[in-house]
Amino acid sequence: MVAAPSEETMAEIRLPAERKYDAELAALARTDRGARPPGWALSPRAVETYVMGGDAPVDGVTITPKYIGDRALVQVAIATLASDRALMLAGEPGTAKSWLSEHLSAAISGTSALVVQGTAGTSEEHIKYGWNYAMLLAEGPSERALVTSPVLRAMREGKCARVEEITRTSSEIQDALISILSEKQVAIPELGQVVSAQRGFNLIATANTRDRGVNEMSAALKRRFNFVTVPVVEDLEQEVAIVTRREAELRADYQVGAAPPADLARMLVTVFQELRAGLTKDGKTKVKTPAAVLSTAEAISVLFQSGILAQSFGGGSVTAAEVTRSLVGAIAKENADDVKVLREYVETVAKGRPGPWKELHAATKAHVRG
Ligand SMILES: Nc1ncnc2c1ncn2[C@@H]1O[C@H](COP(=O)(O)OP(=O)(O)OP(=O)(O)O)[C@@H](O)[C@H]1O
Ligand SMILES: [Mg+2]
User: Fold this and answer.
1) Looking at residue 215, what is its pLDDT?
2) Candidate from 246, 251, 293 with most ligand 1 atoms within 8 A of CB, to mutate
3) Are 227 and 66 in contact, with CB atoms under 8 Å apart?
4) What is the pLDDT of residues 86-107, one digit of tens each?
5) What is the pLDDT of residues 62-88, one digit of tens each?
6) Closest-approaching ligand to the CA atom of 94
7) How many whole angstroms separate alpha carbon 290 and alpha carbon 177?
């Protein structure tokens, strides 16, 4: 008989930022002496510290870095949110756009939950309001029958709303957002009501530059945003730091997997950077670039999966064999030919390198067909 999960073993996989880091946010709020823009839970400086991490503990609480990268970029993003303009985080896949959007809204508004996922099917109800039809039929239009969207709630409560993957939404939705962003109002004619945004309301959108063109954003909508481009990390040490930190956090959240040795993590990130750039780090050897997106996010998940493979089916500790097996899955996403690109890379680059690279070469020969 399989026992039902007890209360103790029941736990949410992933807490929203404002709950996971509630101690950090509370400590920052207690000690924050800076001026807070109207409707904000923290001052811009404290939001920055929350996102980038602190040098020293704040009121006994260590402020961990969330986004690892350019501080100036984060400052511009925060300043934008205090202005009349909305914030657009644009960039390649897996560069932490959604991650940054979640943490910014958690720090500024105390919630990251007011989010709309942009898809081709996103309708006006998702950004304005809809109705509970049973109640609408029973008692006519009323506040109780109204189903508010996350954006409308953010306007009423003076908080940050988030629109993910905005470029995937139809032009009608983009037009509706233009009117919300310029007028900061939504009319609900059925109730004879106009909702005016409270101070503190703003919008954070994310857009994947690889998806552009699906629904090219109108110039009118672009004008309502400040664009902040979230870059792909090119520095090896920095990307290794991001990947190892986030992999360790995932391992703690999911409570599964073995810790990968540092030299394997480093090798994996090097492989990603060299394949992405089409050039080895020493600038000497050109390599083919696969069609698959080799983002930082992808590197994190390859490393995490290697740990699970090692723990579940391997000898317990992560070796190049597990890394290779997960790497192939990440690379073969777009087309099977990419596996050939990996093989070629391993033959020309990995073979001559010491340590785990030799194992990578051997494991690729053993595990990778094509
Ligand atoms: N510079 C970074 N600092 C901290 N974490 C990062 C960084 N780059 C990537 N990550 C991690 O990568 C993961 C994926 O990031 P996220 O989902 O935000 O990417 P994205 O840019 O929204 O991608 P997509 O365009 O595919 O939606 C997150 O776990 C995030 O922590
Ligand atoms: Mg995203």
Assistant:
1) 63
2) 246
3) no
4) 999 999 999 999 999 999 999 9
5) 999 999 999 999 999 999 999 999 999
6) 1
7) 37
For residue 175, give the amino acid letter. Answer: D
What's the 358 CA to ligand 2 centre distance in angstroms?
Answer: 35
pLDDT at 277: 94
Per residue in 16-37, pLDDT tens? 999 999 999 999 999 999 999 9
| C-alpha–C-alpha distance, residues 59 and 30, integer Å | 8
Q: 18 CA distance to ligand 2 centroid (A)?
A: 18
Token representation of residue 222: 């672009």
In this structure, are residues 370 and 340 in contact, taking their beta carbons and an 8 Å threshold?
yes
List phi, psi (to 5°) of 231.
-80, 160
Burial (CB count <10 Å: 0-12, 13-18, 19+), residue 20: middle
Length of the chain counted residue by residue: 370
Cα-based angle 111, 63, 243 (whole degrees, multiple of 5): 90
Measured CA distances, 242 to 46, 58, 61, 214 (Å): 22, 23, 21, 30
Is pTM beyond 0.70 here?
yes
Integer Cα distance of 327 and 24 in angstroms: 35
